[in-house]
Amino acid sequence: MTIAIYPGSFDPITLGHLDIIQRGSRLFAKVIVAVSRNPQKTPLFSVEQRMTQIQDATVELTNVEVDSFDCLTVTYARSQGAKVLLRGLRVLSDFEYELQMSHTNKSLWSDVETVFLTTSNEYSFLSSSLVKEIARFGGTINHLVPPTVARDLKNVLL
Questions:
Q1: CA 36/CA 81 separation, integer angstroms
Q2: Where along the sequence does the record put site: Transition state stabilizer (predicted)?
């Protein structure tokens, strides 16, 4: 049984993230969407809120679990019995960063493999930062995030 970890901040989860989760759930026996507790970032939503948003968006995916972690990604993956890290790629600059992270993770744990999925074309421009900026200025985000996230952003930002 191959377990994949899809780590990230997911502040908030977008339809681009959800695309990667859905496609990953077809490739792996189990996908754990792991929300990082990164003290160097100041997220808009708490870890618990982000986990709830992801759970709401993935409720129909029976092989997807949501968790959080506050250690190295490879340490968390090993603790979950996962040897695959799932990562999404939007543009070339993502690849440069993700390749560096993949090599670093491999240097920390030789058994881990990183699997890259390119985002679907309609989400290639999408980022959580962009969604938050649009929402801050009152723009429409319903086509960019799950409905519960659109509601949560409206409640927090407006």
A1: 18
A2: 17
Taking the C-alpha atoms of residue 123 and residue 40, their distance in angstroms, rounded to an integer, is 27
6 has binding-site annotation:
no
Please tell me whether 136 is known to bind a ligand: no
Residues identified as active-site: 17, 41, 90, 128
- CATH topology (fold) of 3-157: Rossmann fold (3.40.50)
| Residue-level pLDDT at 115 | 98
Residue 62 vs residues 28, 58, 78: alpha-carbon distances, Å = 12, 8, 22
pLDDT exceeds cutoff 90 at 35: yes
- 85 annotated binding-site participant: no
Does the model's pTM come out above 0.85? yes
- CA neighbor of 43 nearest in space, from 34, 35, 52, 32: 35
